Amino acid sequence: MILDEPMRHLKMIPLLLWRAALFPLPVFLIALVYALRKRDYALALFVLPGLGTIAFFALLTEGIPRYSAPILPIAVVTFLVLASYAVSSLWREHAHWFTRWK
Description:
By secondary structure, this protein is an all-alpha fold. The protein has 5 helices and no strands.
């Protein structure tokens, strides 16, 4: 299918990603944007292999969800890192809410 009609496959890539990489792709994109804005290059380097794997998956497979299974643990860890950044940011901004009742 891919070699027979490559343009048709390129048109199908967004639908294949919707089907098989619905959670990892937005997590990786948000993490990459956040890392670049905050100049956290370690996080950016952590996210790039996941995005590369998704790109490889989208371009060279038929979008079978089991092929995206290796991406999920990396996406979960990335999500947890982003959540910890959000919690620590909120804690820094609003720590006075928790310390005034001593």
